[in-house]
Each structure stands twice: as C-alpha cells, then as structure tokens.
Specification:
Length: 343
Amino acid sequence: MKRNPSMRIPLRRNAYGVTLIELMIALVLGLLVIGAAIGIFVSNKQVFRTAENLSRVQENARVGYELMARELRQAGGNPCSRNSRIVNVLNPNTIWGTDWGNGVRGYTGAQAFGGAAFGTAGGARVAGTDAIELRSGEAGAATVVDHLPTSAQFKVSTANHGLQDGDIVMVCDFVQASIFQITGAQSGINVTVTHNSGTGTPGNCSKGLGWADPPVCTTLGTPYAYGPNSVIARLRATAWYIGVSKSDAQRRSLYQVQLTNSGGVPSRQPQEIAEGVHDMKLQYLMPEATDYVDADNPAITDWNLVSAVRVVLTMQSNENVDVDGTPLTRDVAHVVTLRNRNL
C-alpha cells in the first residue's frame, strides 16, 4: 500500500525530550552540588588535621614540661638540709667535675655543655637552643652508722642499701654535704661503703670530704667525719636540651640526659622525651632581682642563688596545617620555683 505523504503520525502531548540547554543546566547544578560536598569534606578534613595536630602539640608540651618541672622544683635538694654547703671531690676536668656542686646550671644557645655536643645527627644538640643541668639527692637513702675518714669507709644501717660499686652519691648532715664516687658497695651483701681516692672512673681526687672552696684535691684533702644518722643517697643528675629527632632529621625533640651506672662506670644516656619541641628558652631569677635573665648574664654570680626558672617551649606540629602552609607553632611559657631555695 502506498503511503500518502500528507499523512502524519500524531505525537502524544506528554512525550517531551531534553534539550541541550536543559542538559547543560543539569550538569552545572550537579557539579555545583558535588563541588560543595567536596569542599565540605576537604574543610572538615583540614579542621580535623588541625585539631589533631594541636592536640599533639599540647600533649607533647604537657609531657615535656611536667617531667622537666618536676626536676627543676627538686634541684639543689638533699635529704638533710637545704642550706648545707656542698663539696664535690670527684676528679676535675671531666664532665663529672667539681662544678657539680651546684643544683642548677644553665647554658645559652651558644654555650657548649657536657650533656650533648652540637651536631646534626639524631640526639645531637641543636645550636642556638638553651640547655640546663640539674642535680639533687635521690629518695631512698641509706642511714650512716659510723664513718672512718682515715680509712675512707662508711658503715650503714642495712646491707640492703641499694648502692652499687661506681655510683656517684651525696652524703649529708645538717652542716654540709659531699659528692663523691663509691667503691666496694654491694647492696644485699655488706654494710660498708668506701670513698677512697685513686680508684674508679672518674674517681675521687681526695678521700677527705670536708668542705673547702675550691676542694682540696690531695690524698687526705680536707678531713671531715660524718656522724651517725647522716644520710647517703644517689646523686640524681640530669640535663635537658633540644636535640635532633632520632626519627626525622628535619624535626627537633626535647631530650633528657640522665646519670646512670653502667658496669661500675657512670654514663649519661640521652632519652627523647617529647617530639615537636622546636626551641627552648631558659631564664633565671636571682635574689632581689626585678626580672629574669639569660644564663650568660653577669647578674648570675652564683648558681646556688637562683630561685626560679622561666621555661618557654616552642612547639611545632608534625604536619603543615597552619593557614600559610607551615607547621602549627605555639609557645608554652611556665615559671618554676626551686623549692629548696625558697623554703
């Protein structure tokens, strides 16, 4: 059958198509919705990263400060009296030398100290950052029963005194205190503690434990007999500094160096306490002073007179989350009073 050209197939009125303009508008609206969703996601992710890094910064600052402040408060203390004169008869010219009589000793960023050398390896001290050494008598002391200065021997009240050969200790009464290295001590075996010269590392320059300034480094030195109820305690000696992180050479951490006894020989072992500590600024308060001063200030004439330390830790986040694309940086400042200097 031949089709008539004039005949047309009727279209349903509700059968509409999508024009190109409508399709483009729909695509644009879809892209706007997707872009908004992505923007919210990215913004939330950035907020989360910033909050997480800020929390880590605050946590590291709290841990570092609390541990450091605890030792600062105890610096210069001994089990007997806060006003005791302290003599140090360890051999001089070593990192354990005679200046270890002070409870606190600070160093500016340009001053070297025995705790750690300047360098770029993991654990090395970062140049330009302050450092500090702290010393005090530990708890758990042994009570003296008898002291024989000529034979350089202490008798203590129990064999379970906890002291070992090579320990650096402090003995004190209410007149003075002495820092020296012991030999022949065997906790749990005998009650004798020896402080003779000529043995051990670094060893004692004298067996005389009497106070003198400077210490008299001869065999007998300045004799002094500690009476019954005097106390012998290990010397707690630490140093705090900013060092290169052991896990990332581009970052810095707060380190503690602690005096330990390694096979009868004292050693200083660095420990990474808190990461992300980029800098440390330390200033000191002298009696009747109106402000804190740096460690190299001429106003510090005697470290035994320092009564408080101002600590400023500069913290940095692990990631570049600040608005300018750099690590988040915060300064945490605290003032710590040395309890043994303010009683």
